[in-house]
Design goal:
The protein is mainly alpha-helical. Helix content is 70%, strand content 0%. The chain has one domain. It has helices at 3-24, 30-46, 50-57. Helix 1 (3-24) packs antiparallel against helix 2.
C-alpha cells in the first residue's frame, strides 16, 4: 500500500465512523465528518496533508499525490 491509498483509506474510515457515531451516539459527531471533508479540500489545493505526514513517518511507501 502506498501513501496515497493509505490516506484515502484513513479518510474513508474517519468519514464512515463519524457518520455512524452521529446516527447512533450523538448528532455532534457529524463535526468530525465536516473536519475530514475540510481537511481533504485544503489538501487538494495545498498538497499538504497531516495524515500523509504521519503515515510517512510510520514508513508507508511514498505515492504520487503527497510529495
Amino acid at each position: 500500500m502506498n501513501l496515497d491509498r493509505a490516506v484515502m483509506a484513513f479518510a474513508g474510515i474517519v468519514v464512515l465512523a463519524s457518520a455512524i457515531l452521529s446516527i447512533t451516539v450523538h448528532p455532534y459527531w457529524i463535526g468530525l465528518t465536516i473536519f475530514a471533508g475540510l481537511n481533504m479540500l485544503q489538501a487538494s489545493f495545498t498538497g499538504f496533508c497531516p495524515a500523509a505526514v504521519v503515515f510517512r513517518k510510520l514508513g508507508v511507501a511514498s505515492g504520487t499525490a503527497f510529495n
